[in-house]
Design brief:
Structural class: alpha+beta
Distance between the termini: 64 Å
Number of strands: 5
CATH architecture: 3-Layer(aba) Sandwich
Low-confidence stretches: none
Mean pLDDT: 77
Radius of gyration: 18 Å
Number of helices: 4
CATH topology: Rossmann fold
Oligomer: single chain
Number of domains: 1
Order of helices and strands: HEEEHEHEH
Helix content: 40-55%
CATH class: Alpha Beta
């Protein structure tokens, strides 16, 4: 009993001293991105969407909304918790509808503007959107495109 209580108290101290400051920073950055519209990052770490004054839980979000929320959250947590110089996303546009494919691609193309990470590597078979973003975004550069079967 005393051992379990000591573990709970130690866990609470870690949460208050380490996790809460990170969560606060991520929530602040998330709110800056979405203001009061769209996706909401709550204090407990859950993500919801407010639509027509109704709060929709995570499992009611579309696949595109969930993918975009995961990528943004990953980038925000990385920016607030580490000084790693790069992140790598493998096929983040896979199975997204055109609206979210473009939103996710644009988010990734501009993710390095804040300085962390300094470089973002994205692998994709979405040639058209990769070219479009490289042409329209100063921060994006295509290193190599290889046609399938080559």
């Amino acid at each position: 009993m005393a051992g379990a209580q000591a573990l709970r108290e130690a866990a609470d101290r870690v949460i208050v001293s380490r996790i809460e400051p990170i969560a606060r920073e991520v929530r602040g950055r998330w709110k800056h991105l979405f203001t009061n519209n769209g996706l909401t990052f709550k204090a407990d770490g859950s993500i919801t969407r407010v639509r027509d004054a109704e709060e929709l839980e995570w499992d009611t979000l579309s696949g595109g909304e969930r993918t975009w929320a995961r990528i943004i959250t990953h980038l925000l947590v990385m920016a607030t918790t580490t000084s790693l110089p790069f992140a790598w996303f493998d096929e983040p546009l896979e199975h997204l509808d055109p609206q979210y494919r473009h939103a996710v691609a644009a988010t990734l193309a501009t993710a390095t503007r804040g300085g962390s990470p300094r470089q973002l590597l994205v692998t994709t078979y979405e040639h058209a959107i990769a070219r479009q973003l490289a042409e329209s975004t100063d921060d994006a550069q295509i290193i190599a495109i290889r046609e399938s079967g080559v």
